[in-house]
Automatic annotation (TrEMBL), chain A:
Primary location group: cytoplasm
Function: Catalytic subunit of the queuine tRNA-ribosyltransferase (TGT) that catalyzes the base-exchange of a guanine (G) residue with queuine (Q) at position 34 (anticodon wobble position) in tRNAs with GU(N) anticodons (tRNA-Asp, -Asn, -His and -Tyr), resulting in the hypermodified nucleoside queuosine (7-(((4,5-cis-dihydroxy-2-cyclopenten-1-yl)amino)methyl)-7-deazaguanosine). Catalysis occurs through a double-displacement mechanism. The nucleophile active site attacks the C1' of nucleotide 34 to detach the guanine base from the RNA, forming a covalent enzyme-RNA intermediate.
Entry protein name: Queuine tRNA-ribosyltransferase catalytic subunit 1
Binding site for substrate: 100-104, 154, 200, 229
EC main group: transferase
EC number: 2.4.2.64
Cited Pfam families: TGT
Cofactor: Zn(2+)
Record keyword Glycosyltransferase present: yes
Active site: 100, 297
From TrEMBL, chain B:
GO biological process, one term: tRNA modification
Signal sequence segment: none
Segments of this protein annotated with the region Disordered: 258-278, 411-430
Protein name (database record): tRNA-guanine(15) transglycosylase-like domain-containing protein
tRNA-guanine(15) transglycosylase-like domain span: 40-225, 282-410, 432-490
UniProt xrefs under PANTHER family: QUEUINE TRNA-RIBOSYLTRANSFERASE ACCESSORY SUBUNIT 2
Length: 443, 535
């Protein structure tokens, strides 16, 4: 419709835009197929979505998954990946694949990582030997892995970090982007793989703005932009348990996270895909989509499944609770996932959850489909011109009985959607307001 | 409770019955109103074990995609954590199938009170209950409750309660007498005809422990004409055996008793002790099984639970004439990272003795990009002219699914990707490799076990198909083929021991710690949210 970014190997085409919010539907064609955006990417950290097979993921209608460079580089290692002919073949996945650069894991998984201008120095978790990951090496590793989208190495700092370290990290991330672009250009892999930049800058809007300017200048070297630096490096932080809205709300900086996303999405070139890293709660996904984000990933839906929590349009359902033990209804009767379509009862899931891996598989299948449905319905609504209505309906169904997270209400107001309009009785919950089914509510 | 107008029929045909020795047969299970095609299970064949009602590691789509899974046994004891047990609450036809997600037209479901693989010491049974194990502790299961659960769940086959002691062996003669008396009484409880109820298809566990005389006495008691109150209890049946569909033997309690007896009377060394080819106690168990089948009709199916190797299976087929074996050991092999790789009949008997599978934890597989088994190829093989048979499991022969879920504005007309023609047959992909599973095992990824269990069940199913083929087509070569198998494959199953060690070390290094860490994280998320909501 509006703009097309056409440069091998990526074809990015905006199909429709929301008349009110910044949301858009686009068609992203990569070497391993077409992915309709906005989309959620399930995470296959170690080259497998927990417990499932590549064939199952394909049947769920997922077209783009994520692998972790840091993990795959350690195990199975490049020798194996090269022998197998790349990560696609190694895991039997023929769809699109994205790898992160490994920078985030260096900070979140290793306490002893030292960042120098050359790269990140860390001790190998297996041998303890000091190991250096440079931007060039990160790109080379990602070339060997062979993902359709690869990420620059960035200097990740915790969103709680303040002061000169944030500025240093931002500036270094820009310099590292140049080295990544150079490495990517000379590799001969440009015809198959697409490099994304990661916009940095912590929670400081000025820094972030400078970073945006610098990275947009380098637009000819990159195929898309990720919005990072919102979640990294908290003490025990892995993407998924700590990220933007939660991180921010914990420290009463409620609006900062979404403001950063908004600031980035507003400024980033329209004809490039925008990827918000580590976002996975349904309400966060929809706010991000409304702010103009096209892609997001998070381990949350697959991790929470292993602990017995199924995601539904009425909020998460904790299947470990005894109130589900005699409930012969499926998780969600209208859900198209294999688990619900088969009529797997909550009672049966309650019987096996945390005892049998098959329970994790059943709920993982469901949660991946739930995420895909949230995003698929968003695409349909954007096309139909009803995305603001969809937001209102989704939030009413999801939060109607508990109250709306304040930050979501504020964030959506900034793009012209008022969740509370015509809904005087609606409550607002300060903080993140994330919904959970608590054991304590179980009589 | 509503009853189907016509009963399902279980027929077992044995073209040339033999009391002791290899035999091929076929079970036809016709379920009225479900499908025109009956379920067919050829024997010798396998039954799939379940844990808490599921085939371990398999989601429902994957257990359906595994053609080896036809007869599925459901130990019921875990459901006794709730009263009434959950499956008894399931409305509609075929309640057990519905509750557990098995297909009435494809899967034959049997129900046993206990997990036949569980040999843990248990409190004593009484004249009116069996001690069963659930996560909430030991439960007492009475024969009349068992009958009512069976009527509510409507399994296709039920194992009658058996008084098998799991107290500290060995057992006295008095205890064995009690055992066979109670087992016979409990059998009559489930056989007792009742107005408006279809009699279930009952398999009876052949009681008698390690005593030849007791085993003989129990099987005699099945075929003896009943008199007095015992006859009235099961009338119009004249003998207990008339109501019995088949026979079963659980090996775990037998092995435990034999071991205990040996500890008590240390054996003087015998030639069989020095021969590592014979797995533990098989030689002692064979005469015990034969005594159980001495007087009962030879035309009914015989099922043995908890064998531990293909060698053992071949011996029970050869010497006793067993028709059905549980696949627990092959499923367990998938738990500990072993990909089974053996064939019967053996085509190439030259070369070194081989293990019956690959311990994929072993670093020698880190770079091994071959499919799981040397004896099979995937459906998409580079060399389709290869003489190797195809392993149809989703690890060796994965394919692009014919259909996928669409979520909104992503159908082919919008994405521009062509839809796959669902009628064009499976579009196969290359097999998953040993290197991939090696990686998944070492990174503690559950997908490893999912792929391995589907593979192991198919390898075991192909093993039984080969057994049936030799018995049917070349019965004169049976003994020779069994000997060839023993020469070709190491019966010492050292590969399992090694795999168990690797499995344990990875569990220790990553498993527990990782689970604890993940639990911590999960709690962290929850707790964090709690704080914020209360804020």
């Amino acid at each position: 419709m509006t703009s097309v970014f056409l440069r091998r190997p990526m074809h990015f085409e905006i199909v429709a835009k929301c008349h009110t919010t910044k949301a858009r539907v686009s068609r992203m064609t990569l070497a391993h197929g077409v992915t309709m955006l906005p989309t959620f990417m399930p995470v296959a950290t170690q080259a497998a979505i927990k417990g499932l097979t590549a064939q199952q993921i394909e049947a769920l209608g997922v077209t783009l998954i994520l692998n972790n460079t840091y993990h795959l580089n350690l195990r199975p290692g490049l020798e194996v990946l090269n022998a197998a002919g790349g990560a696609h073949k190694f895991q039997g996945w023929n769809g699109n694949l994205l790898t992160d650069s490994g920078g985030f894991q260096l900070v979140s998984l290793s306490k002893f990582t030292t960042i120098t201008e050359e790269g990140a120095l860390f001790s190998s978790p297996f041998t303890g030997e000091p190991t250096m990951l440079t931007p060039e090496e990160s790109i080379s590793i990602q070339h060997a892995i062979g993902a359709d989208i690869i990420m620059q190495l960035d200097d990740v700092v915790s969103s709680l970090t303040t002061g000169s370290r944030v500025e240093e990290a931002m500036e270094r991330s820009v310099r590292w982007l140049d080295r990544c672009i150079l490495q990517h250009e000379k590799s001969g892999k440009k015809g198959q793989q697409n490099l994304f930049a990661i916009v940095q800058g912590g929670l400081d809007p000025q820094l972030r703005d400078r970073c945006l300017d610098a990275m947009i200048e380098r637009r000819n070297g990159v195929a898309g932009y990720a919005i990072g630096g919102l979640s990294g490096g908290e003490e025990k932080g892995l993407s998924g348990t700590t990220y933007c809205p939660r991180t921010c709300s914990k420290h009463h900086q409620m609006s900062s996270g979404e403001c950063n996303i908004k600031q980035c999405a507003d400024k980033l070139p329209e004809e490039r895909p925008r990827y918000s890293m580590g976002i996975g709660f349904a309400e966060d996904l929809l706010v991000c989509v409304a702010l103009g984000v096209d892609m997001a990933d998070c381990v949350f839906p697959t991790r929470t499944a292993r602990f017995g929590v199924a995601l539904t349009h009425k909020g998460p359902v904790n299947l470990k609770l005894s109130k589900h033990a005699k409930d012969l209804k499926p998780i969600d009767e209208s859900c198209p996932c294999p688990t619900c379509r088969d009529g797997t009862s909550r009672a049966m899931l309650n019987h096996i959850v945390t005892h049998e891996t098959a329970a994790a598989h059943a709920i993982t299948l469901h949660n991946i489909v739930f995420q895909a449905q949230v995003m698929g319905r968003a695409r349909e609504a954007i096309i139909a011109g009803t995305f603001p209505d969809y937001l209102c309906k989704f939030f009413a169904e999801y939060f109607g009985d508990t109250g709306y997270p304040e930050w979501c209400v504020n964030a959506l107001r900034s793009v012209g959607v008022d969740l509370l309009e015509g809904n005087e009785k609606a409550k607002m919950i300060p903080g993140s307001g994330a919904k959970w089914e608590y054991a304590s509510l179980d009589a | 409770m509503s009853q189907p107008s016509a009963a399902a029929t279980f027929t077992f045909s044995l073209p040339s019955p033999s009391r002791y020795g290899p035999r091929i047969g076929s079970i036809l299970y016709r379920r009225p109103g479900v499908s025109s095609e009956p379920i067919q299970i050829q024997t010798p064949g396998l039954l799939t074990a379940t844990s808490r009602g599921v085939v371990p590691h398999l989601s429902r789509d994957n257990h359906r995609a595994t053609s080896a899974i036809r007869w599925v046994n459901v130990p019921f004891e875990t459901f006794l954590e709730h009263n009434p047990p959950l499956p008894t609450l399931q409305p509609g036809p075929n309640p057990l199938h519905t509750f557990l997600g098995f297909t009435p037209g494809k899967h034959l479901l049997s129900m046993s009170a206990r997990d036949p693989y569980d040999g843990r010491e248990m409190p004593a049974n009484s004249v009116n209950h069996v001690s069963v194990y659930s996560l909430r502790g030991v439960r007492k299961l009475s024969p009349s409750d068992w009958r009512s659960y069976v009527q509510a769940c409507q399994p296709d086959v039920v194992f009658a309660l058996s008084d098998t002691p799991f107290t500290d062996p060995p057992y006295s003669q008095k205890r064995m007498t009690k055992s066979i008396d109670r087992s016979a009484t409990w059998l009559s409880t489930i056989l007792k005809p009742k107005e408006g109820e279809h009699p279930p298809n009952v398999f009876v566990h052949m009681a008698g422990g390690t005593s030849l005389a007791a085993r003989k006495a129990f099987s005699d008691s099945l075929v003896e004409r009943l008199y007095g109150p015992e006859a009235d209890a099961v009338a119009p049946l004249v003998t207990l055996d008339e109501g019995v569909t088949g026979y079963s033997v659980d090996l775990v309690p037998l092995r435990q008793s034999l071991e205990a007896e040996e500890r008590k009377n240390p054996r003087t060394s015998s030639p069989s002790d020095l021969n590592p080819v014979i797995p533990s106690h098989t030689e002692q168990i064979i005469p015990l099984l034969k005594s159980s089948f001495a007087s009962v009709p030879e035309t009914k199916p015989r099922l043995v639970n908890s064998t531990e190797s293909p060698h053992e299976i071949l011996q029970y087929i050869s010497s006793v004439g067993i028709d059905l074996f549980d696949a627990h050991w092959a499923q367990r092999a998938a738990d500990i990272g072993v990909a089974l790789d053996f064939e019967f009949p053996v085509r190439h008997s030259s070369g070194d003795k081989r293990d019956i599978g690959h311990n994929l934890y072993d670093t020698r597989y880190a770079l091994d990009l071959k499919p799981f088994a040397d004896a099979f190829r995937g459906a998409l093989a580079d060399d389709s002219s290869s003489a190797l048979p195809v392993c149809r499991c989703l690890a060796c022969s994965p394919f692009h699914p014919a259909t996928r879920i669409y979520h909104g504005y992503d159908t082919p007309e919008h994405s521009g990707l062509p839809a796959r023609d669902p009628d064009s047959g499976p579009h196969y992909k290359p097999p998953h490799t040993r290197a991939y599973i090696h990686h998944l095992l070492h990174t503690h990824e559950m997908s490893a076990h999912t792929l391995l269990v589907m593979h192991n069940l198919e390898v075991l199913d192909a093993f039984f198909a080969g057994i049936r083929h030799v018995i049917a087509e070349h019965p004169e070569r049976w003994t020779e083929e069994v000997e060839k198998f023993f020469r070709r494959y190491d019966s010492d199953t050292r590969v399992f021991t090694a795999a168990k060690e690797s499995w344990k070390s990875v569990e220790l290094a990553r498993g527990k710690g990782r689970l604890a860490r993940e639990k911590g994280k999960q709690e962290e998320t929850t707790l964090g949210t709690v704080v914020e909501t209360d804020d």
